[in-house]
Amino acid sequence: MIERVALAIVVAGVASSAGAQQPQPPQAPQAPLFSQFSGSTCARPPVLHCPDKDCVGDRVMNPGQVVEMKSRRTYFLDYPCDLRPDEKVTIVLSLHGAGSWGNWQRHYFPIFDFVDKYRLVVATPNSPTRTWSAADDEYLQNIVSSIVEKVGASNVKALWLVGHSQGGLTSNRIVRTDFFKSRVDGWLSLSGGRLGGNPGRANFGAIGAPPAPAGGRGAAPAGRGVAAGLTASAAALRELPAGDFSFIFETGEREMDDKGLPAASEWASKYGCGPRRKAEDIVDAKAGYVYDSTRQNPPNPPWGLLARPGTAQIYMYPNCTGGRVVADVVRLEKGHTEGLEPNVTESLVKLMVSAPGGKIAQAR
């Protein structure tokens, strides 16, 4: 009798073990977080990513596939394909310069190569006139609002504006508006004006209207009278903004006159930062993706030569109130239009994500 009970227990145990080892049906992969945004596609490499060299003109001219539903205008949206609905992210709105396009901006400042590592959601819009104005403000606001709604305000670590040239001047303008003033935690100006004292400008020469896009590493990113336009627009924005945010200024060494960077910063003084300190140089053995292929004959060093490796110097203003980041970055022997190299791009991203944020999360 005892043997029969023992045998029954053994058989039951074997049956139970066999049942536990039955393979489970595979779960369907989670759809990318923004898959419901019209036109959104998350892929690796990212959609319309240029090769390391010889990016064709029609590719950099692309305005993006994601549709902003109120205006029906498009933009690019880059983010981690495995982004979880409850994950904390940094949102970046990246604005191209005058005469340029959204996909040229994606490759000029290739932050999309780092969205996975630093958990970024990067929107790169496009102006149909190739120059930003107040008529674009609602479109830009709608992009930010739709992204915040999707990820959830409590999951937004920070919102950063990034702008090259006239896109930087536009960042300076919109950060003073009620919508962005209450949301922006930082601004990275890529040759788009420096808060707290601008360096003098080198002579860009006769930069006229760009010809039709050519092959090589990209098409012309500028329009008529760029240098004069930058000067006039900057003059209207000389007063410091009233809002509080971190600020990073990046420029090519050859864009500035012989005086170079100002030795001090009113923006750093606003936050009681310490004296400027030079950090370790950033060395890149790899070139950026794009340059202005339409203005290389004759060459114009202040405007920009071919994309190539280089070295960047970083100057930090330490111990700012509230942990704000205030910094200047100079790319040696570079002009206005050579695309940023990978190491200096990542160094800028590190500075951005190291800064305090939370305006959107705190306002919910």
Structural features, described:
With about 375 residues, the chain is an alpha/beta fold. The protein has one domain: Rossmann fold (3-Layer(aba) Sandwich), CATH 3.40.50. It is about 25% helix and about 15% strand. It is built from eleven helices and eleven strands. Strands 1, 2, 3, 4, 5, 6, 7, 8, 9, 10 and 11 form an eleven-stranded mixed sheet that branches. Helix 8 links the parallel strand 6 and strand 7. It is globular, with a radius of gyration of 24 Å. The chain starts with a helix and ends with a helix. The N terminus is likely disordered.
The N- and C-terminal alpha carbons lie at a distance of: 71 Å
SSE pattern, N- to C-terminal: HHEEEHHEHEHHEHEHEEEEHH
Total strand segments? 11
Structural class: alpha/beta
Query: What fraction strand?
Result: 15-25%
The structural domain count equals 1
User: What's the average pLDDT?
Assistant: 87
What's the CATH topology label? Rossmann fold
Largest sheet: 11 strands, mixed
Helix content: 25-40%
Précis, in short:
The chain is an alpha/beta fold and 364 residues long. The chain has a single domain (51-363), classed as Rossmann fold, CATH 3.40.50.
Key structural traits:
364 residues, alpha/beta, Rossmann fold, eleven-stranded mixed sheet, 17% strand, globular
List the helices and strands and how they pair.
Blueprint: H1 2-20, H2 57-60, E1 66-68, E2 73-78, E3 89-95, H3 102-108, H4 115-118, E4 120-125, H5 137-151, E5 156-164, H6 166-174, H7 178-181, E6 186-190, H8 226-235, E7 246-252, H9 266-270, E8 277-278, E9 282-284, E10 310-316, E11 326-331, H10 342-354, H11 359-363
Parallel strand pairs: 3-4, 3-5, 5-6, 6-7, 7-11
Antiparallel strand pairs: 1-2, 2-4, 8-10, 9-10, 10-11
